[in-house]
Every structure is written in C-alpha cells, then in structure tokens.
Design a protein that fits this description.
Layout lengths: L1 H26 L11 E5 L5 H11 L5 E5 L7 H8 L3 H7 E4 L5 H15 L3 E7 L3 H11 L4 E7 L12 H24 L6 H11 L1
Parallel strand pairs: 1-2, 1-4, 2-3, 4-5
Helix pairs in contact: 5-6, 6-7
C-alpha cells in the first residue's frame, strides 16, 4: 500500500513538473530582444526559422560572429547561406559553420570550443522554444564561465495546448524527460569534488 502511495505521489510530482515545463515553453516566446553579446550561436533542427532569427541578430550587431552548430556534413556554405537568407558580405565575414555536432551534447561541446577559440565570454543562444531549457543546461555545463542569453524561437508545436495532438504531446513529454535526465546528471556531478583542475595549480603555486 505504501509503495502504491509513493508511486502515485511520484506520478503527481512528475505531472506537475510537466505542466510547469510546458508553461515555461509557452511563455518563452516571443522572446525579448537580447542584449549585445560577444557571439551568437544557433542550434540546427527541423525548422529553418531559428537560422533566420540568428542571422537577423548577427546583422543587427547583437554579436561579432555567428556559429551555426550541427550543420549537415553534406551541405555547402552556399547551401547554408540560402537557408539563412543572410546578406552575403556579412555571411562571408562573420558566419562559422560547425559540422561536428549530432545532438544537443555535441552542440554544447562544439559551441564551447568555438567560444574558447574566440575568447568569447557571452553568447546569445538561438534554438526552438521546447528545446531551449535542455540546451541551456548542456551549454552551461560545457562552458560555465560564459554568460548565456536565451533567444527561443516559436515552432509549429502548440505549447499551450500540447496535449491536443499526439505529435505535440509526445514531443513535450520526451523533451521533459530528457530535461529531467540532465538535471539529474548535473545534480549527481555536483556531489563530486569541485574545481579539481583549479585546485592542482593552486597547490603547485602554494608549494
């Protein structure tokens, strides 16, 4: 009986969390105008709207350069320019393409490497509304010293009435479960020793 009660409580907490998650996604768009940052990164996906939005931010001077992370390896620079609708001089000078990432973890690692190579300390992150919470967790974990500004882009997914179609419901539930998994991972990692890399040099200096 106690096991059943615990299961019901866990399901209730999970359900309330799902509602909070979908409400957050629904209220995240339209996104407010972000502050100027060192760079802009957009995570590719099914829709090209996010690419257009990121390109607009670059053209408005919101960042010095734009990284498009997760580009199809068979795509050329010309192909991507057509999708972004970028002005050619700006595209040629200030858009970098990342072909290494195959998922959100890869996006985060690719972005961290790019930001480090440019010595960027702040980034505007552009991706789909439902994808933004998980992306911010992954990006923050990959580069904790970089200030991140989210710029979610509204998708065809109806975040307010997500339960009305099987496609929306499945996408929201899966995304929520992935989000919880990363929260759990980061909480677990947070239990371990901190700043091991920093501690070693400090010890050497002290000696």
């Amino acid at each position: 009986m106690k096991s059943l009660a615990a299961l019901l409580i866990a399901l209730m907490i999970w359900g309330l969390g799902l509602l909070a998650f979908t409400g957050r996604v629904d209220q995240s768009t339209p996104a407010p105008e972000p502050p100027t940052a060192d760079g802009v990164v957009v995570l590719t996906g099914a829709s090209n709207v996010r690419l257009e939005a990121a390109t607009r931010l670059l053209e408005e001077g919101k960042g010095k350069r734009l990284l498009i992370s997760g580009v199809n390896r068979e795509a050329t620079r010309a192909d991507v320019q057509t999708v972004t609708r970028a002005v050619k001089p700006i595209y040629d000078c200030c858009v970098d393409l990342g072909f290494a990432a195959a998922n959100t973890v890869g996006n985060a690692l690719e972005t961290a490497e790019w930001a480090k190579s440019k010595d960027y300390k702040s980034l505007i992150v552009v991706t789909a509304d439902y994808h933004m919470p998980r992306s911010m967790l992954e990006l923050d974990a990959a580069m904790p010293g970089v200030k991140l500004y989210s710029y979610p882009v509204k998708t065809d997914l109806n975040a307010r009435r997500w339960w009305k179609t099987s496609l929306s419901a499945r996408r929201m539930i899966v995304e929520y479960c992935k989000y919880l998994a990363i929260l759990g991972r980061e909480a677990f990692l947070g239990l371990g020793p901190k700043d091991k890399d920093k501690a070693a040099p400090a010890a050497k200096e002290a000696s």
